[in-house]
Structure formats: structure tokens, C-alpha cells
Amino acid sequence: MLIALLPGDGIGPEVVAEAKRVLDALAIPGLAYEDALVGGAGYHEYGHPLPPETLSLARRADAILFGAVGDPRCDTLERSLRPEQAILGLRKELNLFSNLRPAKMFPELADASTLRREVAEAIDLLIVRELNGDVYFGEKGMRRTEDGLREGYDIMSYNEAEVRRIAHSAFRAARARRGLLCSVDKANVLETSQLWRDIVIEVATEYTDVALSHMYVDNAAMQLVRNPGQFDVIVTGNLFGDILSDQASMCVGSIGMLASASLDANGKGLYEPIHGSAPDIAGQGKANPLATILSAAMMLRFSLGQAEAADRIEAAVGKALASGARTADLGGTMSTSAMGDAVLAAL
Amino acid sequence: MLIALLPGDGIGPEVVAEAKRVLDALAIPGLAYEDALVGGAGYHEYGHPLPPETLSLARRADAILFGAVGDPRCDTLERSLRPEQAILGLRKELNLFSNLRPAKMFPELADASTLRREVAEAIDLLIVRELNGDVYFGEKGMRRTEDGLREGYDIMSYNEAEVRRIAHSAFRAARARRGLLCSVDKANVLETSQLWRDIVIEVATEYTDVALSHMYVDNAAMQLVRNPGQFDVIVTGNLFGDILSDQASMCVGSIGMLASASLDANGKGLYEPIHGSAPDIAGQGKANPLATILSAAMMLRFSLGQAEAADRIEAAVGKALASGARTADLGGTMSTSAMGDAVLAAL
Ligand SMILES: CC(C)[C@H](C(=O)O)[C@@H](O)C(=O)O
Ligand SMILES: CC(C)[C@H](C(=O)O)[C@@H](O)C(=O)O
């Protein structure tokens, strides 16, 4: 099994290095690793955020462990050369359409959330975000209005096949959890959402054991503050999923702790912490590597059939936290590698 | 001065009636009132959510006090006949492009928020949401892909004139407050956002006393949970504004308390509580009328030049809360009209 390591920019290399140490410590037979440059790092070396070598490694690999992309030095480049294009390109080229973002409070970090403790403690949800469509990948550009005004435009769309496959992902995920699925859209305004809702309702007939509800996105943003414990699985489009999954992550209070998986139809996946490249603390050994370590665990579970190894990592992270290990984002002073050591010690 | 009263659906008529009693008690000379049906109520009586009589009253009026629209019995109607089209139609037909949604904690309700007290107490922000453009009003529909699949689509766009006028609104609002403006977009993905950002930066040169920053919408949704006290004025497009303003409202914990104004270029405005029609409690005298009473205060201040009367209403609401008046949403048992009485008594 080949794992592609794409550390990327900012704190990416530091946190991926710790995850690699943890993977090495598990000594799982048959795993091989190759790394490649991506994001700003790809641009600076090869003139492109997703160099052909990197894309071809990603294609060959059975799974991808991704750090983060984003580099302020690239802010003025044209859109197609910016670091973000690397992650968008990988999602699209590899048909990674199903983004799973669990948000659950770590009991050891109960005071990290700005939500009242009893509200935060009740959070145990999974956001299933569609990643290959929506206004992200439609035709877009600058044009002139009839009056000669500059206008920016982006076409939002979903077709029935795109909605159907993410709906199936979400219903299956709900079935494996508490059996509640909330589909979030803006069907009172958007035709894209109307199709989304129609297809989700159609797919629901195949999952009569799952309780389906619908919520407008503005209400969902409110409910995630008012009573996030009401949610089990939320399924939504690319744009709303971007917003709501970041909001939900912050509700559990520890963005440095949260992992994500982006899967294709065959279980191949890209695994990344949901935090970004954090250029302000890059290279200082301050970053929290746990989100990446937990992403490696998700990778073992979902793409490599190593559920037991995944369990071991997750337990070790819990133990490290329980023993008081805290990086700066968690209110402590531990360095990135010291946190890696703490997890290794707990393994 | 003519005020159009458009109570609409659900709890709309109940809460608008209380606001009218408060306005009457102020006995401001020269105010006249006319009412008309809108939303589901308009549809059931005239076959359209925004009947011509209602639109023409809204045009003639100097200001509009609006209740809420939304009626589950209309859920299966075609989009153009649904209640929501009434509010979208009024915003567009009357060029009400600037939506002001203040969110500030009422000290009397400090425990209503699910955010920790010290986090919620620091909230004092204003969201300036563009209301006439974006994916709300672009071309939209159902079509077939090349492969014959059903596809829903909606075109998102902003032109430079649309962005410029809302940017000026927002910079002026920031100048009158703490001088901080945060523009929220998704410029790393959307061309619409790129134009938005370019124009906001251009307009900023006329407001060198205002500190401008930019934030991606996913990060903004996180920051509103992590540290909402960092914001003074947020300016954003129609869709992101819909989501973030509802999220921010819930952060202050009392959605039944929050007012909003939607203004045209000449100060004419539509005033509405940000809560919806709440069909589940309609007609039971349980609704909290304070958001509508405070919307009437905003109307006096922004459209009718009656700042002093507005101050009196706001002070009376504070006094009523301080005296312990609480409707069900605030954890009390008071009826809608009893809350109206409490405000009248405090006036
Ligand atoms: C970097 C950016 C393009 C990306 C997105 O919007 O999808 C990020 O915010 C994410 O959620 O992974
Ligand atoms: C009713 C709906 C169309 C409306 C909107 O999305 O603008 C509402 O959510 C609002 O925010 O006023």
C-alpha cells in the first residue's frame, strides 16, 4: 500500500512529520511512503501549486496524507496558480466527492469551547460535505454588464447524479451512527437546492431506517449555536459545507484537533487536518499535530483497512491529553514534537 | 408620513399589533398607517404573495413595518407563489439594498446565549448585508446536462456598482461606530468575491479613518463562535449575509429580540424582526413582540427622523426586561400582549 505524503505549506510539514512518526511506530507491514510538494511549496519549486509529479503520485497512491496549503507570498498570483488550487485540483481530479468532517468534544478539553459546557459536551456530529460540484467548479469569470460595468460571476449547480452519490454516502454514514440525517440547503431561494432536496428525498426511500429532515442553511447556522447536540449527520453542498463544518469545528473548541477525510467511490481518500497552514506560527514548532495524527488514524480506518491501528492512535491521543499534554492552541506550552512524543509514549 | 403595515403570516400579525400599540402610545403627530396582506396571507386572499395592492402601498409609503412571511401550506406551490417571494420582491422592487442587522447582548438577558457569558457579553456588532444581488437574483432554473441528467443552477454575480453602494453604506456605518470594517467573502474560490474584494479596497481609499480587513466566510463563521467580540461592522453579500447574520443573532441568544432595517439609497426602509413566522406557535399569544417593537424604533430613527421617540422605545424595552418581563422564548410565561403592556407601562 502506497501512502502519498503531501505536507504543503506553513505548519503542514511540521504536523505531517509527527503523524509519520506515529505511523512508523505502529510498524504496519506493507506500507510504503513517498512525498511530494504541493501548494505554495509546489509553486515555488515547479511554478505550479499541483505539479504533475505530485498529481501522478496522488493518483498512484492508495491514500494521501495532506498537511495544509496557503502561503501569503502567493496572494497576488492569478487564481490558477494560488496554493488553494492544489487542494481543489486533487479533490476534483481524484473524484474525492465525499468529505467527512466529524466534530465531537474531547472530554479532556471540555473547557476549550466558547460554548457553555453542557452545550459543547452534547456535540457529536458528522458533516458530510459534497466536494466536487457547486459554485466551486462551475463556469466563473469576469465580464461586463450591458452598461459596461465590471461584473464577477460564478455558476452554482448540481446535477442529479452528483447529489445522489453524496446522498448515499450520507445515508450510509447516518445508518452507522444514530440514524438521523439532516440535509441542509436553501431551497426557498435556489434552484440548485431544490434539485438537491428532490434527489435527497428520492434516495431516502432506500434508507427507511434513517430519519431524514431538511433545514435551510441560515437556520442550520443558528441551530449549530443554539443546540448543536440535536444533530447526528448533516449532509450539504460544497459551499454550505465549507461554512458549516468550520463553524461546527469551532463549536467543539479545538480546531487543532479535528481531522477530515475526502473519499472517492472506492474508498481511496485524502486525509487532512481541518486547520490551515497558519503561516504566522510556521517553522516555530508551536503547531498542534493532533489533527494530523487523527487524520492518519482516519486514513488507516477508511482507506487501508487497519481499524485496529486507527483505534490505537485515537486511544493514544486521548491518553496524551489526559496526561496533560497541551500545545499552545490548547492553552499549554508543549512543542509540536513534544506532543508527538507524548502520543508515541502513550501508544 | 405614511407607514405601511405588512403583518404577513404566522406570528406576524400578533407582533405587529403590539408594535402598533407602542407607536400609537407615542402619539407622534403626522403619522398615518395603512395595512395590506403579504406572504401566504396575500396568496390565500389574492393568489399572489405580493399582491399589486400591497406593492403599490409599499411604494407609496415612507416606511414599511413588516412582520414575517412563511406558511407551511404554501410549501408545495411553485417558487414564484411562495411566501418568501414577497420579501424578496419588496427588497428588489424598492431597491432596498442595504440590510442592517445589529447584534448586541441585552445585559438583562445575559444568560440567554449558549455562548459563555464573557464571550456573549463582548458582542456588539452590526452586519451590513447586501440585499439586491448575488445568487438570490441571478438567472436560475432547471436544465439537462449533456448526458441528459436533471441539473439545478443559479448564477451568482455582483457588478462594481452594486458592491460600491453597499461598501459605502458599510464604511459610513463603521465610521459612526468603532471604525472597524471586516469584509467577508470567498475570494480564494469565487470570482464574484474577487470583484467584491477589489471594489471594497477601492472604496476604502475614501474612508482612511476606517480600518478595513478581509476574511473568508468559513473563517468568519468560526470567528463568530471563537471571539465574536472582535467584530464591529461586517459587510458581506446576500448569501453569506443570510447565514452569518442568523448565526450572529443566535450568538446573542435571543432571536426574539433582534430587529433589522433594509434601506434604499434615500433612507426609505423596510423594518422587520429577524425571526420568522413561527407557524408552530402562531395564534397562541406566545410570540415575543420585542423584536418588532425594536424594529419600529429603528424605523423611527432611520426613515422618519424621530430619533428621540426611538430612544424612548428602546429605553422602555430595557425597562420592561429589567422589571422581569419574559415571554416563553426568554424563559418566561408572559403572553404577547402582556409583553406589549409591559413596554407601554415603561414608556
Ligand atoms: C482552501 C479552500 C479552497 C478550502 C475550501 O473552501 O474548500 C478550505 O476552506 C476547506 O474547507 O478545505
Ligand atoms: C425568507 C428568506 C428568503 C430570507 C432570505 O434568505 O433572505 C430570510 O432568510 C432572511 O434572511 O430575511
Structure description:
Two copies of one chain form a homodimer. With 347 residues, chain A is α/β, with parallel strands linked by helices. The first copy, chain A, has two domains: 1-96 and 264-347, Isopropylmalate Dehydrogenase, CATH 3.40.718.10; 113-252, Isopropylmalate Dehydrogenase, CATH 3.40.718.10. In chain A, 41% of the residues lie in helices and 21% in strands. Chain A is built from twelve helices and twelve strands. In chain A, the strands form two sheets. In chain A, strands 2-1-3-12-11-4-5-10-8-9 form a ten-stranded mixed β-sheet, sandwiched between helices. In chain A, a hairpin with a 5-residue loop joins strand 11 (259-263) and strand 12 (269-273). In chain A, helix 1 packs parallel to helix 12 (336-346) and helix 11 (307-322) packs across helix 12. The longest helix of chain A has 16 residues, at 160-175. Chains A and B meet through strand 6, strand 7, helix 7, helix 8 and helix 9 of A and strand 6, strand 7, helix 7, helix 8 and helix 9 of B. One 3-isopropylmalic acid sits between chains B (84, 87-88, 242) and A (188-189, 218). One 3-isopropylmalic acid sits between chains A (84, 87-88, 242) and B (188-189, 218).
